[in-house]
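INFO worker-7 received task bundle
INFO bundle size: 2
INFO processing item 0
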Amino acid sequence: MQDPWRQFYQPPTNPLVRLGMVLAGIGILALSFILGLFFLAIAVGLAVVGFIVLAVRRWLGAGKRKQADDGLIDVEYRIVKRERRDE
């Protein structure tokens, strides 16, 4: 019984070509690994910088916050009296 995959892909019979394909595969895997590490390092670096920025903003903004937080909200409002005109 023949494998249907063989009609699309036939592995090379020359051992040097096979060795070259193995080396190319290893090179592609290594390049993918290096690029993955590079993007992971960028993501971790951005996360650390963001954490530092948020920590500094919280630390510097702590003195501006009201000490007594009783849950009340100060509001101002104005009552506008509108009379209806019956015509």
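INFO item 0 finished
INFO processing item 1
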Amino acid sequence: MPFDNKFNKIKIVNHFDNSYKNQVINKIYFFIINEPNLSFRSKKEISKRIDSNEVFCLYNKNQLIGFIFTTHLSDKLIEISGLYISPKFRNQGLSEFLLKKVTENNNYNYFAATFLKNIIKTLNNMGFIKTSFNELSLGEKIKFIGVRFKIHRIKEVFRHRKKNKLTLMKKEW
């Protein structure tokens, strides 16, 4: 749903008409396959996440310039993943802007797992702190692992692990 903000012509949307949904899926898929730091997600997975309102898209003048995925790990914990901003729009505070909007509901706590140092820095700036997998409940651990229990997602974990270690972050615990 669009909202007012300090960025001119910027809006965030996470509900899509069926007539527009395929266009959004194709654009997100294009971003994913062309960004080496993003974990691969199939078009089918993107579609399911859009249907579940788990994708927040960032637009500038009706052009999709970024997105973030969310996953409800429990009735009180949401995982943030797959943050992307188009290279042309990076270093303008849009990652923080998108994260702030996505994590503004105080009825939830927020969790993120990343291999990227720049994302760790962004999350720190947003009030996230390092945490441990042990702080998740058993159900949250199962859901976290279950989301990744697909061949292409497991391959991505090993691909990212070759370069960096996994860092877990939390907000409002």
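INFO item 1 finished
INFO post-check item 1: The beta strands are 10-13, 55-60, 63-72, 77-85, 109-114, 129-130, 167-171.
INFO post-check item 1: Residues 18-34 form the longest helix (17 residues).
INFO worker-7 idle
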